[in-house]
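ok so heres the complex, two chains, lmk if somethin looks off
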Amino acid sequence: MKYTPNPSSVVDEMLQTIGCSSLDDLFADIHEELKVKDRLNLSSGMGEMEVRNQLKYLAGCNIDTENYPCFLGAGAYDHYIPAALEQLLLRSEFYTAYTPYQPEISQGILQSIFEYQTMICKLTGLDVSNASMYDGGSSLAEACSLACANSKNKNKVVISDTVHPEYLDILKAYALSGHMEIVVVPGQDGHSDIDAMVKAIDNETACAVIQQPNFYGILEDPTAVEKAIHENKGMFIMSVEPLSLALLKSPAEWGADIAVGEGQSLGINLSFGGPYLGFMAANKALMRKIPGRIVGQTTDLDGKRAFVLTLQAREQHIRREKAASNICSNQALCALASSMYLSLVGDQGLKDIATRCHHLALYARQEFEKAGMELKYKQPVFNEFALKVNNPVNANRILLENGIIGGYELDDALLLAFTEKRTRAEIDQLVAVLGGIK
Amino acid sequence: MPKLIFEKHVNNSNPFTLPTCDIPLPELSETIPAQFLRNESIALPELSEVEAVRHFTELSTRAYGVDSGFYPLGSCTMKYNPKINEWAARLPGFAGLHPYQSEDTVQGALQLYYEMQEMLAEIVGMDAFSLQPAAGAHGEMTGIMMIKAYHQYRKDYKRTKIMVPDSAHGTNPATANVIGYEVIEIKSNERGLVDLEDLRTKMNDEVAGLMLTNPNTLGLFEEDIQEIAAIVHDGGGLLYYDGANLNGILGVARPGDMGFDVVHVNLHKTFSTPHGGGGPGSGPVGVKSTLIDFLPKPVVVKKGDTYGFNYNLPLSIGKVKNFYGNFGVIIKAYTYIKSLGAEGLKEAGQHAVLNANYLRHQLRDDFNIPIDRLCKHEFVLNSKKQSDYGVTTLDIAKRLIDYGYHPPTIYFPLIINEAMMIEPTETESKERLDEFVDVMKAIARESAQETEKVLNAPQNAVIKRVDEVTAARKPIVKWEAP
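and the predicted structre for the whole thing:
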């Protein structure tokens, strides 16, 4: 299969026009010894039917959440995606477009991002959202970098270890820059050690970070941390699950200066971990500091409402070696998917979905306890909790034999997540299988 | 002017319905303590499904993709995005995989991932790959982190600088800065290539490495690449390859053979995955054996007939992204490479270069081309000839919109005044290129004879030029209820 439209006769004609005798002439500026001898060591091309069979074969080697009930969460969730969303996302004017640098020909993309920014502001309660970022983990790292870059004398990040462990790994990698010192405060009994965090905060602390709900699904009360970090003139950063915000106090209500999170729950396929959607929102004071793109509303020469990429003086293509972030793209199509999702389920729908997830998790907790099993932690949760099991790897193996994709394996527990796709029957079976092995 | 979705809200019009479920449904106030519950309402818009569908369909008609027409954006490689790739990524056996499923349940995905690591290594001449970075700039960051980790491991702490040519993409200096390096700019010579004397003068034992794009942003192959590599390596530095322009040498030459130690490739450029209006992309990073130990974790390995993750990488820089990268994008690029095969990839590279040189040749009489010689996948012209009439590159770009084209990249690279950077890619036919040439010639003519038409462009777009100054001075970045 090839996608080069010019047949060899036309190629010859074009070569002649430019005064070349062969395609090789076009590479006369590359030393012979640097050229690939003969051809790359790859297989030959395939026709569409053949390549389709190959991909279908590989996809068929996997066990997927479309055909198996899935209780895995831990930062990626098996939510339902409305059919209309999947169809709309295939409009190729959206997916084959580039970044909307030319506003006159890109109003559709720009407006969709403006709407996305508005929805993220509504969810988080904050004033300004960027046009999206790579994912939840890198957004958190960018937020911490922002906090450190924003203050001359502060470079300490105080963060609870009840944040997603991969987010912590990403943050540590970003700290290779030398611009951030990461202070990880161990949690206790499944939640942040608020007293220890407050003690760790000092006048060199640029920000304090709490995840809500935390990695173990538990709701955190960050009130004291928020107070301490603000007393020390640092920033309070929350990493939040956007669907939970239909029910839970918004980052703004908790006093956060920056909210970040993973938007995969909002209409984005699991896709083995990506592409997902990092979001970042902040209070007004950070409007000109927040990394990534931002779309603003303005007018055209006729006074008509128009949208345009704005505040670009912050960005790498202008500030180059002075830029505080190197991000020059966003996850536009994923952001679009999330705003389509929020529009298709609507305000009440989002609350209903979040409530259903919560109720299913509560039902499962209750049934596990009835079956004599023990929860690892007892605190309030949104849609995820850890269940004690002796051998999590073995438990997952037996669940799989019973046609169930089990939970995330902790040392002595399975972290189980519940989405609106799960049914009572599936949960009853989960409880029966796990109850049978304990 | 289309309304915003918030302006289409109708109370109680949304039909979304959950399945019935016979479990206990306690009040939230009984199950979540009050201090955790939200007080302020979110106030998302409520619409009927048909109105929501029409809203987004209308937005799509006000966007422009590769499927809409010619998109000669320099350095962005806007090639056709094959539809079979989209089909593949949406297979439930891929799209429906949770990242934490056990390895035995995702063998097909891991095989694809492993093969992709191997194929990319072969294409660019590297020893190993990580597919974790989510975009080109993210790949750059990962690569520079590895360079830093390498020097630190060798206790070579005095290397605090990264060299970047003045023609580089803005992300190069930005990346070096965010990883904590001081940026040293290297001059270009009159031929548009790295000035070797400047490089020699600036290379010393405080320099960690050089970031280079080859072909560079003028579309020119850095002919002295072997000497450049020798200067950097002899000084103890490493060579970073920015793969944004890989399409210009695809299948013909490999960065690994030129002496580069670490590369990133843009799957959304060279390997045909769609740009999505700004993302998601994917920016895998490849390294020579010297840097393998520093790759992000995990890497996918083959053990006998099965595939699995290796997290046991004690010197790894850690992670740059959740999970394993933008897998959905990787599937599309894998499908593309399998479709084209070795010969097809080379032909893609060759035709990309042919198309660029053909356009350069056909436009040289009407437009100034500051460095007018054999180019690779792209070239740069400017509006010098039109400036006599007060016409700028921006005006030409806007006039192209009137003719139904997406304009090329403008005002980049910075080293060319009023630059317009044109990259046609290999997926355009001669007919399309000829049409574009005719339009560009028409604009050149208009610039001289009907200047107002160019200065006032666009007239045929959904909006006229926008007030960017007010947008930045008094930012409105979200909709507020009236």
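quick notes: Chain B touches chain A through 198 residues (CB under 8 Å). thats all i got rn
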